[in-house]
Design goal:
Order of helices and strands: HHHHHHHH
Strand content: under 5%
CATH superfamily of the largest domain: Tetracycline Repressor, domain 2
Number of helices: 8
Distance between the termini: 74 Å
Shape: elongated
Number of domains: 2
Oligomer: single chain
Length: about 200
């Protein structure tokens, strides 16, 4: 006979999905840190152990090393896109754009650190970057358009110009202060793009 679940109890399937989601997030977090420290050949068993899951759980979510590396990268792209949406809801247009561009500097730094792992993927990292470019461009484009509409930025400002400048500074990553330089560049770009009264 079917029994209604007790009030306040969670269906078993929902609890399993929640646990699976938490496990997946922990695996991705640990994998990013591990690939950053040890490169693409880091032990997947060590990643599972540090994420407090069994190897079977790791392989159920990520059947291959490439699948895990790709998921780490896509997770980082999703975080930066979600940050753009959140900032747009919480801050005035120009402040949201500035804050997102500063976060993007950190995103570039993380991408550079895990680049050796990304480059190990069959077919190279370029196939990963293809989908992420559209997500990142879409995020900055909506922030720029919002700032133009509010009158904070000139009408001729293009999201692609700001993005090119930000990515360009990453090519000086051998300079120990490139991130400091990139952060200063954010302010220069924003100030130089302001609407002249």
């Amino acid at each position: 006979m079917f029994q209604m679940p007790e009030k306040g109890s969670e269906p078993a399937s929902r609890k399993l999905r929640t646990d699976a989601t938490r496990n997946r997030e922990r695996i991705l977090k640990v994998a990013k840190e591990t690939f950053t420290r040890h490169g693409a050949e880091a032990s997947l068993d060590d990643i599972a152990r540090q994420a407090r899951v069994g190897p079977g759980t790791l392989y159920r979510h990520f059947p291959t090393r490439d699948a895990l590396i790709e998921a780490v990268y896509h997770s980082e792209v999703e975080k930066i896109a979600a940050a753009g949406r959140r900032l747009a809801e919480q801050k005035p247009p120009i402040d949201a754009l500035r804050a997102w561009m500063l976060l993007f500097v950190d995103h570039i730094a993380a991408k550079l650190i895990i680049a050796p792992a990304l480059n190990s993927i069959v077919g190279g990292a370029s196939k990963l970057y293809e989908g992420s470019r559209a997500r990142i461009y879409g995020t900055i484009d909506s922030l720029v358009k919002r700032a133009i509409k509010s009158g904070d930025l000139r009408k001729d400002v293009q999201a692609s110009d700001l993005l090119r400048a930000m990515i360009g500074v990453a090519h000086t990553a051998n300079d120990p202060d490139w991130q400091g330089s990139a952060r200063r560049l954010v302010n220069i770009l924003i100030d130089g793009s302001r609407q002249v009264e």
